[in-house]
Amino acid sequence: MQRRRAEAIDIAYEATYDTYMKYMTGCAEFFRNGYIDIMQFSLAR
């Protein structure tokens, strides 16, 4: 996940990168534990 860390920090700021990584790792943990999910709905008249 952090393979291109330096490149990401060059594009944004280190604080932005750290915040994003905390968000993504937190989301991954919630998915693994079944707290959140993704659904797709198609609605038609």
Description of the molecule:
This is SAM-dependent methyltransferase. It holds the Pfam family CMAS. It comes from Antrihabitans cavernicola. With 45 residues, the protein is an all-alpha fold. The chain has one domain (1-33). The chain has 2 helices and no strands. The longest helix has 20 residues, at 14-33.
In short:
This protein has 45 residues and is an all-alpha fold.
Record keyword descriptors for this entry.
single chain; 45 residues; mainly alpha; 2 helices; 60% helix; 0% strand; SAM-dependent methyltransferase
Write the layout of secondary structure elements.
Blueprint: H1 5-11, H2 14-33
**Helix share bin:** 55-70%
Which secondary-structure class do the elements indicate?
Answer: mainly alpha
The SSE order reads HH
How many beta-strand segments?
0
Unreliable runs:
none
As a whole number of angstroms, the C-alpha radius of gyration is 16 Å
**End-to-end distance, in Å?**
42 Å
Please tally the helical runs, counting DSSP H or I stretches of 4 or more residues: 2
The averaged pLDDT comes out at 91
Proportion of residues in β-strands: under 5%
Number of domains: 1
Largest sheet: none
The dominant shape is: elongated
Protein name: SAM-dependent methyltransferase
